[in-house]
Predict the structure.
Amino acid sequence: MAVELKLPVAAVTIATAALALLTGTSALPGAPAGQTEQFDYQTRYFQQKVDHFGFAEVATFNQRYLIADRYWNHNGGPILFYTGNEGDITWFCNNTGFMWDVSKELEAMLVFAEHRYYGESMPFGEKSFGNLTNLNYFTSEQAMADFAVLIRSLKQTIPGAKTSPVIAIGGSYGGMLAAWFRMKYPNIVVGALAASAPIWLFENLTACGDFYAVVTNDFLKSGQGCADSIRNSWDAINNLSSTAEGLTFLSHAFHLCSPLQASDVASFKSWLSDTWVNLAMVDYPYEADFLQPLPAWPIKAVCTFLKDPSLPAESLLKNIFQAVNVYFNYTGNAECLNISQTATSNLDDQGWYYQTCTEMVMPTCSDGVKDMFEPVPWDFQLFSDNCKKEWGIRPRPDWITTVYGGKNINSHSNIIFSNGGLDPWASGGVTKSISDTLIAIIIPEGAHHLDLRSRNDKDPISVQKARALEVEYIKKWIQEAKNEPMPF
Amino acid sequence: MAVELKLPVAAVTIATAALALLTGTSALPGAPAGQTEQFDYQTRYFQQKVDHFGFAEVATFNQRYLIADRYWNHNGGPILFYTGNEGDITWFCNNTGFMWDVSKELEAMLVFAEHRYYGESMPFGEKSFGNLTNLNYFTSEQAMADFAVLIRSLKQTIPGAKTSPVIAIGGSYGGMLAAWFRMKYPNIVVGALAASAPIWLFENLTACGDFYAVVTNDFLKSGQGCADSIRNSWDAINNLSSTAEGLTFLSHAFHLCSPLQASDVASFKSWLSDTWVNLAMVDYPYEADFLQPLPAWPIKAVCTFLKDPSLPAESLLKNIFQAVNVYFNYTGNAECLNISQTATSNLDDQGWYYQTCTEMVMPTCSDGVKDMFEPVPWDFQLFSDNCKKEWGIRPRPDWITTVYGGKNINSHSNIIFSNGGLDPWASGGVTKSISDTLIAIIIPEGAHHLDLRSRNDKDPISVQKARALEVEYIKKWIQEAKNEPMPF
């Protein structure tokens, strides 16, 4: 099951914010998928406390985790622990080929732990999203406490694992969790690989326009006239959609499943924006099926249709259709395009929406100058009001930086922050090494956590080098831990 | 107001566990007091979220904090932040003379933050202890989140404080909080002085008998026959209390306010045990009034009455009375002794009892061989059953080591662990340096956090040196922070 999780972004939500929050704009998927592989693991369940941080609620739930020990050295071999993020853990497991690829060399056990409130790991079963009380334990802190308690139990109960060094690995939000987990529980994990983890996309740590600037840059580099064509498309849409005739034109030109209404125009533009963002995230060097089945270097394919930004409105938009059709209809099976859908049909974004309305507030904006999108400022009040409307809660935009340190993280150690040069999420990533043990790796040709994907013949040298460096650091951490074991 | 907080200890609780849990055995006070001084501070209140780790409860409460800036350098001078522990913050403030003594030299602002559920900082006012739901936010994690949010606000709102390096300082449980606060929020505090902080008195990190062995050693060193007299007293009490005649003798010999009943004997022995423990904690080199008004080196004074352990039961116990009378009646004002009281009458141990029944489970035991107490094994089940009976909850004995790292804390930095050689709590302290930046200091002649007390002419050289070293490290941390500011 492919999962796309949503980051509510101001740039496309100002007109129809409530809807946009639901239909999403830019996706924050958890792990990359090529051709989804099926790996050999066991599914297990661990009884977790619903509340690690209070004593009134004594309920427990079954946290799902997957375990594979084919290559594990049963005498204290390392454990690679995937810090599950916003989706079904089997999907992350099957789409994080890197861990499988290196397990033999490292003689490592693999564990993939599901994040509470996703997949099967529902603290209150089907009622987990039923009310605010049941949702109350849905935080990154509780999720990491689950990981800590689970790891401790595994080390205590699996023969030979008592002194096993544990490495946290994750991508995207899972990468943030991996990094934070090492920061908060260095007694539990000796190091972390945080792939494409935008830990600095909070509060004012990153300029709100950077995210869309990266997307734009990908299109700028992928074909002359490409970004400008998209930039010019908004006015063309605005002009055409002001008349019934224009709406009919757009409905036909874009092969829309439902005729476009005036009230749909904001959603229509959001759908286009999301598509450009998604393309930037999955601009992989080979054919892949992550958010959608796509050709190698899909933005280049898209840009072949967008060479002349100076065309009149109707011609320009016909080309825009050809461009998005690459994304939505690479297989040629789509009979029409549905503007309520931008990625896989297995969307499961309810949980992530709750998280953005509580802890995970990532301000973004666009100005149409440094980026190719319509200008929209970051409007926290509007964002908060929509959260209040949808969930009955208001976000706490300064909590993540307080609890996880913001940019003041230099006292921590043993974390690799890997970033893709093409990935918009890298705008909020750690892209410069902070110390000898807080390492930033840039993969210039990489989109969203390309390094966590399975090896591929078409991998650029940069990702091959990145993975080699990652393995080198992981080995170093393991060796250091062997010299100074942390039995628990 | 003097506060004595209770550590439920198996050694004296097996017979009347529920009572002993309330009347306590060994005290874990928060900060030392000599002659209580009155310092010049302002009292302020900060609006805190009741729940930092969930979004359903939106209530807030006023956290009290005290602030003094007489010597503060208004251009980014440091902030010494007392991480308040289990009691009224004004008492800690007035009894932590060290901070006041060094504030001029360091040009430091002093802040003393009250721990939630103590003093005036009640999340639900008078109903804070009313039910488990209201008590649910009473954890060390929430308390430290309060500290983090408060510090961030102070730095944002006090002109000149934006880049002020903050040092956490605390004693006893407050020392544990100072250490853990640096571990969990190194973005907020650049270092911590954790005085007499038994962070390793959890789970199986310390042999359960060590605590009472230290107490015993204090008596062994303070006079020939002293510890043996106490060791022999238990059988003498057991024998005498088996008859009505013997009970009458004991009531008279100990000048008890209420005649001793057979059912009181366990409490009577607990009261004696508590007294020996308390004496070990406050064995200060000068007259002081911490738990009780006492002479200099009170154990030596006590031991002058306990030179012959081979005396027959009645004579031995008459001497034991003389010994405890030093503790309970140094002023000569007590008309009789009350076995329900072992320290100041301002006891406020309800909160700490809750904490021991949730997170703060510190196993202790005695064997009568390595110590002078009656043999009592650690019995977690009994302890837990009593918690269930009293509060309706059961403790989680392995949580503290999971969340705060147990002995695996070597990746942290900038923490001083100071320990008194006479202090039983040092048995669970960090008494050997872990790294260049995790420093243990031993004060051989020190009882419970002597170093946090005001300067005194009778201070032994060891505590003078300890304080000098502490100031040296604090200056180093401040300087390092100045070189690499952490604006928030």
About this structure: The longest strand of chain B covers residues 60-68. The CA atoms of residues 84 and 114 of chain B lie 5 Å apart. Chain B touches chain A at residues 52-57, 132-133, 135-137, 139, 141-142, 145, 148-149, 152, 184-188, 358, 393, 396, 398-399, 402-406, 408-414, 484, 486, 488 (CB under 8 Å).
